[in-house]
């Protein structure tokens, strides 16, 4: 019957802006009939997963008829060893996205406010609106989180503050000094969530992880993921580190068996492969330096990055540039969805992928 959804669905549903993912390779193949396609849109590791993770996936195939461990015991054990804390400090999710949802379901009520930088990861707004919370985006300053402005935006209704560090889509970080000023005197009933999905790529000596504040007794959650440098985006697995009390509360709203067996096994194996992690960092460092040089030679402005992507100003309509690159089989991300209509975001790839991106970009800009 006409109007059923409008009459019966929760009103919060109509305020949601669906997440727009990077265009899949298969979709471009279907739409344009292209075969040789390079995806540089979603900040995936161009080297793929660790060889150990791939071996673990193969070895677990015979056990697919068995439910996974709902508690992710062995993964938590490995993480506890890595970070030197107890297993009950970890929450494991079907990607960091699910953890954002679980945290919001646990803590956000309709009268609560959630503060974050703008632009940043769109899921902060999405999850808040689902629960009927109020969003308070604070504009970036020089493409970086303006922590003092965010602190000034705090009211008695503020429940959560997100600090995406490094920030997506700009790749910038806030420093130790900035974080110290921000955290000093902040109401202890405000939950600060440090989203550190790109943490492993950071080489700025001024960077400080949110883990330090957890060690000092603050109410914080630090989110990490296996989707980026670990190359397991297709398996959807991420984790959060917090106090045992906060983790226990979030676990109350978690579905049983939320993390599949294959993802758990692959994640444990990936944590054991330091060689792959080191190689991934080095490939990213070399690719970043190459792209910086080439973009400077072209005369394009870009935001120096601490992640595995670069946010750059093409000087043209980003949709036009995106489409031009797409026709050459190179998938990037448009900046208009972040409020920057002439920018694109490009993932740092292998030498071959970076070279192809630059040559394709030159052709598009020459028009």
Task: Break the fold down into its secondary structure elements and pairings.
Elements: H1 4-8, H2 25-32, E1 38-39, H3 51-59, H4 73-83, E2 90-93, H5 95-107, E3 113-118, H6 123-130, E4 134-139, H7 147-152, E5 158-164, H8 176-183, E6 191-195, H9 211-215, E7 220-225, E8 238-241, H10 244-251, H11 261-271, H12 274-298, E9 301-303, E10 309-313, H13 318-327, E11 330-331, E12 333-334, E13 343-347, H14 351-366
Parallel strand pairs: 1-11, 3-4, 3-5, 5-6, 6-7
Antiparallel strand pairs: 2-8, 7-8, 9-10, 10-13, 12-13
Helix pairs in contact: 3-11, 4-11, 5-6, 12-14
Characterization of this structure:
- The longest helix is centred in the C-terminal third of the chain and has 25 residues, at 274-298.
- The mean pLDDT is 95.
- The protein has helices spanning 4-8, 25-32, 51-59, 73-83, 95-107, 123-130, 147-152, 176-183, 211-215, 244-251, 261-271, 274-298, 318-327, 351-366, and strands at 38-39, 90-93, 113-118, 134-139, 158-164, 191-195, 220-225, 238-241, 301-303, 309-313, 330-331, 333-334, 343-347.
- It is built from 14 helices and 13 strands.
- The protein has 367 residues and is of the alpha/beta class.
- It folds into two domains: 4-48 and 275-366, Aspartate Aminotransferase, domain 1; 53-272, Aspartate Aminotransferase, domain 2, CATH 3.40.640.10.
- Helix 4 packs parallel to helix 11 (261-271), helix 5 (95-107) packs parallel to helix 6 (123-130) and helix 12 packs parallel to helix 14 (351-366).
- The strands form three sheets. The protein has a seven-stranded mixed beta sheet, sandwiched between helices. Strands 9-10-13-12 form a four-stranded antiparallel beta sheet, covered by helices on one side. The protein has a two-stranded parallel ribbon with strand order 1-11.
- Pfam families: Aminotran_1_2 (PF00155).
- InterPro entries: Aminotransferase_I/II_large (IPR004839), HisP_aminotrans (IPR005861), HistidinolP_aminotransfase (IPR050106), PyrdxlP-dep_Trfase (IPR015424), PyrdxlP-dep_Trfase_major (IPR015421), PyrdxlP-dep_Trfase_small (IPR015422).
- Its EC number is 2.6.1.9.
